[in-house]
Amino acid sequence: MSEIYFFRAQLYCTCPWIRHSSSASSQAGKSTFLAQSYTDQPSNPPATSGTEHCLISRLHDVREGNTLVYGIRTPGCMGGKRFAGFSAQLRPNFEYFLSCGIPGKLEGERYKKSPDLVRAQLGEHPLFKAPGQYLVFKRWDMLGSQEDPLVAVFFATPDVLAGLFTLANYDLATTHGVITPMGSGCSAIVAYPLEEVAKQQRCVLGMFDVSARPSVQPGVLTLAVPMQRLLAMLNNMDESFLITPAWKAVRDRMRKDL
Asked: Binning pLDDT at 50, 70 and 90, where does residue 31 land?
């Protein structure tokens, strides 16, 4: 996809914090942009082993430059399979697991006050079927010319997020170009952004899932961006706040931290 290569070159020249974080393993978790797509014929073998239970934990290796091919047979939690579109199943008594639990039988995570609220939240986001047998995650600089990702995911610190957030709202009349729906870490980077691909193309700020937080660095959140929205953001870069002294002050501070 030629736009991706143009985008890559523009990011390299304009966003030095992304350039440095992508090329240095010590910075790989700070602001690396990952691309995700679905396929029936992956160029890399699917992940069928490993001890990582959480999809988010598996993305450490992707940020280091490796490819993750995630499918129904990849070891991991049922939530990851559901939010990737591979299964409709959730663990038994999920509405109690996410809320108050069942005394003497199941410990609850207490992220919602009641099972009814869990059911209502699930109803807000209908199930979707994955458009391919495998979900592929790659670091942005590892993309091939024929790959056509659906969503970009930034793992970013507050200063980086400030730039991305502001650029995401730059050409919109609304103030809600970025949304923050409550959910699991995998829903924030896969399910919710894919909903937006088919709807309003809004970006999704995430990784507030307390259970997933140990899988990312302190001070790092995610911003998942539908790819077409990202290309629009790119086209606005040269006339936006990115050319102002205000952004230069933030950018210079980020350079000192690299």
From this structure: very low
Its domain, for residue 179, covers 2-88+127-257
> Which residue is listed with tokens 């797509």?
37
Q: pLDDT tens across 35-66, in order?
A: 999 999 988 888 877 666 789 999 999 998 89
Identify whether 109 is part of a domain: no
Closest CA to 156 of 25, 250, 33, 14: 33
From residue 36, alpha-carbon distances to 43, 57, 122, 234 in Å are: 14, 16, 23, 18
Residue 38 included in any domain: yes
Give me the number of domains the chain comprises. Answer: 1
Q: What backbone torsions phi and psi does residue 11 show, to the nearest 5 degrees?
A: -60, -40
**70/87 Cα distance (integer angstroms):** 13
Burial class (CB in 10 A: 0-12, 13-18, 19+), 209: buried
Per-residue CA distances from 129 to 82, 168, 185, 186, 192 (Å):
9, 27, 19, 15, 13
pTM > 0.70: yes
